[in-house]
Design goal:
single chain; 208 residues; alpha+beta; Aspartate Aminotransferase, domain 2; Aspartate Aminotransferase, domain 1; 33% helix
Length: 208
């Protein structure tokens, strides 16, 4: 099993860290991620020595040692600068997670009485809030209203996977009605460890 942890790095599930829940855990260090570099980067985590060896070889053109190619590979190494940035930011990852959780809790408390749909979090896991996403019945109108107030928003994943051109031939078009409905309602609000309470209150004021 391969775990996609690009949005959950730093979160936990039943006491275990994201990237340590399956055979292989993958995460992204894209600049917008919780632990991001200033270019492209990512990591693979595994406790399987055989898979670890294969991953190391694949990332350097399939080499097991210099000029010995044991498999087909790619040029998948992170450059030294990106590694240095990730290592420096890793030291404040716990702080980053706690700050985002505080910001999310302020959103939760402030929006609980409004007509915005909030996503619930089960008690056996934590969230790092790579985004703070809510549900609305008229997304276009809300986006327009917030944009006019100078508040940026984003819509992540507006199309269910089974409707993507690469996959739609594998699945019936109407077999994921919940995903179809949510894809029309999701909207992500400003989120970050440095989002001040004053700015957050301004956002909430235009949501209620």
């Amino acid at each position: 099993m391969i775990e996609d942890a690009a949005q959950s790095f730093g979160a936990t599930y039943k006491g275990r860290k994201s990237c340590n829940l399956s055979t292989i855990g993958c995460t992204s260090f894209f600049p917008s991620k919780l632990l991001g570099c200033y270019g492209d980067g990512g990591a693979i985590f595994t406790n399987d020595d055989r898979i670890a060896k294969a991953c190391k070889e694949i990332r350097v053109y399939g080499q097991s040692q210099r000029y010995v190619h044991t498999r087909i590979g790619v040029g998948g190494r992170m450059d030294t600068l990106q590694c240095a940035i990730v290592l420096a930011k890793l030291e404040r990852l716990d702080w980053e997670v706690k700050q985002r959780q505080r910001v999310a809790e302020r959103y939760n408390q402030s929006l609980a009485a409004g007509n915005i749909g909030l996503l619930s979090l089960r008690p056996d896991r934590t969230c790092v809030y790579a985004q703070y996403t809510v549900l609305t019945h008229d997304r276009a109108a809300l986006q327009k209203h917030l944009n006019e107030a100078g508040i940026p928003t984003a819509v992540h994943y507006p199309m269910p996977l089974n409707e993507q051109p690469a996959y739609k031939h594998l699945c019936c078009p109407d077999c994921t009605p919940v995903a179809q409905q949510i894809a029309k309602q999701v909207i992500s609000l400003p989120m970050g460890s440095d989002l001040s309470e004053a700015h957050q209150q301004h956002i909430v004021k235009h949501l209620l």
